[in-house]
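Input.
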Amino acid sequence: MQNDAGEFVDLYCPRKCSASNRLIHAKDHASVQLVIADVDPATGRATDSSKMYVICGAIRRMGESDDCIVRLTKKDGILIKYVQPPGQRGGRHDDFRLQARALTTYRTGVGW
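Output.
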């Protein structure tokens, strides 16, 4: 197919899973797409830049989507580990903080 400028473009461009690099086909209704926007620390408003994560339905069925999102956000520097002094630790779980970003999700469907 050609666009108005005469360039050849694809009719369908499939997405890839951010965790497993699998192609997400059109019938994978269990897949999710998360967009984490950068936030200006002075004003608290979202800027134009953002980071998108796509998780396929197979990862979600295995129950690994939360681990994959945490791993990917740590790798990109969005989620940083907050280490408290030894006297103030409340438990064995680590505390993670979002680094000046806001999480936005796209909701589609009737009734949203």
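Confidence is low (pLDDT under 50) at residues 108-112.
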